[in-house]
Amino acid sequence: MSDVAVVAGLGSWLPPRTVSNEQLCARVGGSAQWIEQRVGVRRRHVVSPGEATCDLAVRAGGRVLRAAGGAGVDAVVLATTSPDRLCPATAPEVASRLGCGPVLAFDVSAACSGFLYGLAVCAGLVSAGLATRVLFIGAEAFTTLVNPLDRTTAAVFGDGAGAVLLRGGTLDEPGALGPFVLGSDGARSDLLAVPAGGSRQRSRCGLGHDGHVPDADWYLAMAGPALFRQAVVRMAESSRTALDRAGWSLSDVDVFVGHQANLRILDAVSERLGIPHERVAVNIGRVANTLTASVPLALVDAVVEGRLRPGHRVLLCAFGAGPTWGATTLVWPEIPTAHLIGSGAVSRSTGTHAAVHD
């Protein structure tokens, strides 16, 4: 039987700097209570000046590798929507800073669905025999792409990184990634976008344009209501398909880990699927929407809180800009967990996030 990708490690990192709703509203106006009620966010972690996506990815990836005993990897894959630079990719620098050597390394870009897309890509590397151990990281310094004076978007997003170690294994063992469901609808690409910075804007400037780019174009533009509707439909549909392909029923799902975009989206998706609230992993209140880092950060918190345990059947699902979406399943394995507390995970004793430098 060909190797399949099996989850063998998990880790996370959140930048120590936090911004509460009260602090945000002091800058942009509005109500802290309204943000929590409409989005589900109470605070978010944000990068400090000079800190970038690569720094967060190295922190999260390093924790996973150390927990795994420092064993080497054949590939480093980074899912991100906020790379350090347009060119080159950020993953090779992450691999270098982690001491991984001249391994295969590249970025994956699928916005908030990036972690699901990246998992599928990594599974393909393993199945094709290109790698036997893959470090896969979802990392974002996305608040650098959000207008700090735009209350609508500034309230939603935060920064962070989550990582998994994948190895080759067999389909019948815990941790094996199940069938993937992935999709996109580029006809709706303007629903969530950063207009400036790419070849389209640069091409206009080079063809007689006066070179001026409106300030707003450098920041995220979001059509919230339309995204909400699309997210609920696509996440529910892809989840059902992934469960069907895995041979599971909805009642088999012990923990549903959906992208933490908006608490109302999570509630609507779980309601459509008929998954009870107590089986839904939720941490958006403490970390906000961290895009590609969202799913692994939610996994970390669920493990530390004791809600996700070995043997549990897990449904993963996400929706993001593009629009893109994806889902997959796995049975949660036995993996090292002692390093998770204090790495951006929820502390059992306080119920709050601790982000410590090491």
Automatic annotation (TrEMBL):
Keywords: Acyltransferase, Cytoplasm, Fatty acid biosynthesis, Fatty acid metabolism, Lipid biosynthesis, Lipid metabolism, Multifunctional enzyme, Transferase. This is Beta-ketoacyl-[acyl-carrier-protein] synthase III. It comes from Streptomyces alanosinicus. It catalyses: malonyl-[ACP] + acetyl-CoA + H(+) = 3-oxobutanoyl-[ACP] + CO2 + CoA. The last Arg residue of the ACP-binding site is essential for the weak association between ACP/AcpP and FabH. SUPFAM superfamilies: Thiolase-like. The gene is fabH. Homodimer. PANTHER family: 3-OXOACYL-[ACYL-CARRIER-PROTEIN] SYNTHASE 3, BETA-KETOACYL-[ACYL-CARRIER-PROTEIN] SYNTHASE III. It is an enzyme of class 2 (transferase). The keyword Lipid biosynthesis applies.
